[in-house]
Specification:
mainly alpha; Arc Repressor Mutant, subunit A; 2 strands; disordered N terminus; disordered C terminus
Length: about 90
C-alpha cells in the first residue's frame, strides 16, 4: 500500500485533483470516485474527508464545479476558474 500523501492534507489532495483535471480535462466524478479512481491508483489511499475538503476549497475558488448542486453525491468537473491546458478542448473535440 502506498503511503497517504502528506497525511491526506486537503491542500495536497487539492493539488492531486488539479493535476488529474489538467491531464484529463473532460473528467467528472463524485468525491468517492475521485478518491478511488483519480487519486488512489497513482498516489495511494487518501481519506474521503480530505477529498471532500479539497473539493469544497476548489469549488469555493471556482476551480471545480458540482454538476448537480442539489444532489448529495454530486459529480465534480472543471470550473470556470480552472487554469490549465485546454488544448484538447479546442474546436469542440
Amino acid at each position: 500500500m502506498k503511503p497517504e500523501p502528506s497525511a491526506s492534507a486537503p491542500d495536497r489532495v487539492a493539488e492531486l485533483i488539479l493535476r488529474y483535471l489538467t491531464e484529463h480535462p473532460r473528467a467528472a466524478d463524485t468525491a468517492e470516485g475521485i478518491q478511488r479512481w483519480w487519486i488512489a491508483p497513482t498516489f495511494g489511499e487518501v481519506s474521503l474527508w480530505s477529498v471532500e475538503q479539497a473539493l469544497a476549497q476548489l469549488e469555493g475558488e471556482g476551480i471545480v464545479r458540482r454538476l448537480d448542486p442539489s444532489a448529495a453525491n454530486a459529480a465534480y468537473e472543471r470550473g470556470p476558474n480552472f487554469v490549465g491546458s485546454n488544448a484538447d478542448l479546442k474546436d469542440g473535440q
